[in-house]
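User: Sequence in, structure out. Go.
Assistant: Echoing your sequence, followed by the structure tokens.
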Amino acid sequence: MNLKSMSDQVGLLVKRLRQEVPDCLATGVVDMATGMLLAFDTTDNHPSEVMDLLAGATLDLFQGRTVVMIEDVFKERRGVTSSEHYFEEILVNSAHLTHLFVRSNTGGDDIVAVVVCPKSVNIGMLLASTRRVMKPAR
């Protein structure tokens, strides 16, 4: 995939998540190979340091040393021999927000979409809407 088409796809993904996920306050896409935030859209202004920290935190959530060790143990115990990552989604609730992290690793691209909603969001709708948008990227 060339860089322009990847950039276009990431931009479209961020736009669709903001439009189609109910109560979505912010969304972003993190490249797991580089740990960089590729794109984001938010209803609020955030300092660039916060956005950079989001990318690093996302990388730690999915590829931190202990997480990778847990994935390896699970795959070994279940006889999984592929190199695909075991954890695909992580849901984090903070005091006022719900953060959904969804991994897509198809076509050689290893990205994570981050969706942020108020904590009052219907979790089932959040998951269903995000999965529907991510399906072509999965």
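User: And one key feature?
Assistant: The mean pLDDT is 88.
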